[in-house]
């Protein structure tokens, strides 16, 4: 298993203005660590270290060792805010990992066998790229697999259609929200083609 380590410093200069200054002048990413039996902690991390770590998709769904001013804490990513146009990470929320306690984390979705519905004349729309899960740290999956091998044109795949790994619960389902994950639809016909067919 890869070791995911991030160095950070405690932050006392809080607020939106301070966060903007950190990003612009010091190339730092502000973040918050919460959970467990400790108070939330505001921290900063070097933007280039954060960008490098999260080039690896697995970092989003693995326990990360956060080294805050020399003190180590195990955390997972709870949320990540990216710049809407440039996509660099602007802010992160981490949750402390406590042995025996469930945590929530965002896990990427991997779609497999996409060629099967395409061969049947369908087009696939991915509705989500990640799913929020609840589990103990030891059960945290690297990704959730969505198998489209048997998907027909007109099929909508919901969260309830997916098999959650052992010990893992989909947060949205637990709240009664059976959201769509993907759908297979007939190809959208261009207006000119539709007019030609009508003639």
UniProtKB/TrEMBL annotation:
This is one of the proteins that binds to the 5S RNA in the ribosome where it forms part of the central protuberance. This is Large ribosomal subunit protein bL25. GO terms for biological process: translation. PANTHER family: RIBOSOMAL PROTEIN L25/GLN-TRNA SYNTHETASE, ANTI-CODON-BINDING DOMAIN-CONTAINING PROTEIN, RIBOSOMAL PROTEIN L25_GLN-TRNA SYNTHETASE, ANTI-CODON-BINDING DOMAIN-CONTAINING PROTEIN. Residues 102-188 form the Large ribosomal subunit protein bL25 beta domain. Part of the 50S ribosomal subunit; part of the 5S rRNA/L5/L18/L25 subcomplex. Contacts the 5S rRNA. Binds to the 5S rRNA independently of L5 and L18. GO terms for cellular component: cytosolic large ribosomal subunit. It comes from the Bacteria. Residues 6-94 form the Large ribosomal subunit protein bL25 L25 domain. Transmembrane segments: none annotated. GO terms for molecular function: 5S rRNA binding; structural constituent of ribosome. InterPro entries: Rbsml_bL25/Gln-tRNA_synth_N (IPR020056), Ribosomal_bL25/Gln-tRNA_synth (IPR011035), Ribosomal_bL25_b-dom (IPR020057), Ribosomal_bL25_C (IPR037121), Ribosomal_bL25_long (IPR001021), Ribosomal_bL25_short (IPR020055), Ribosomal_L25_dom (IPR029751), Ribosomal_uL5_bac-type (IPR020930). Keywords: Ribonucleoprotein, Ribosomal protein, RNA-binding, rRNA-binding. Belongs to the bacterial ribosomal protein bL25 family. CTC subfamily. Pfam families: Ribosomal_L25p, Ribosomal_TL5_C.
């Amino acid at each position: 298993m890869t070791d995911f380590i991030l160095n950070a410093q405690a932050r006392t200069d809080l607020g939106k203005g301070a966060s903007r200054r950190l990003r612009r002048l010091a190339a730092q990413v502000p973040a918050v660590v919460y959970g467990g039996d400790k108070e939330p902690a505001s921290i900063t991390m070097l933007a280039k270290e954060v960008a490098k770590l999260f080039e690896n998709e697995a970092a989003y769904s693995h326990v990360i060792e956060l080294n805050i001013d020399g003190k180590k804490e195990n955390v997972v990513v709870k949320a990540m805010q990216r710049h809407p146009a440039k996509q660099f990470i602007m802010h992160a929320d981490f949750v402390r990992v406590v042995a025996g306690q469930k945590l929530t984390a965002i896990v990427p979705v991997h779609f497999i066998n996409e060629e099967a519905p395409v061969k049947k004349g369908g087009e696939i729309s991915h509705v989500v790229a990640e799913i929020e899960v609840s589990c103990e740290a030891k059960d945290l999956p690297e990704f959730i697999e969505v198998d489209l091998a048997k998907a027909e044109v007109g099929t909508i795949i919901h969260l309830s259609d997916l098999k959650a790994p052992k010990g893992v619960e989909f947060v949205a389902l637990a709240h009664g929200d059976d959201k769509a994950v993907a759908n297979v639809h007939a190809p959208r016909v261009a207006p000119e083609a539709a007019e030609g067919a009508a003639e």
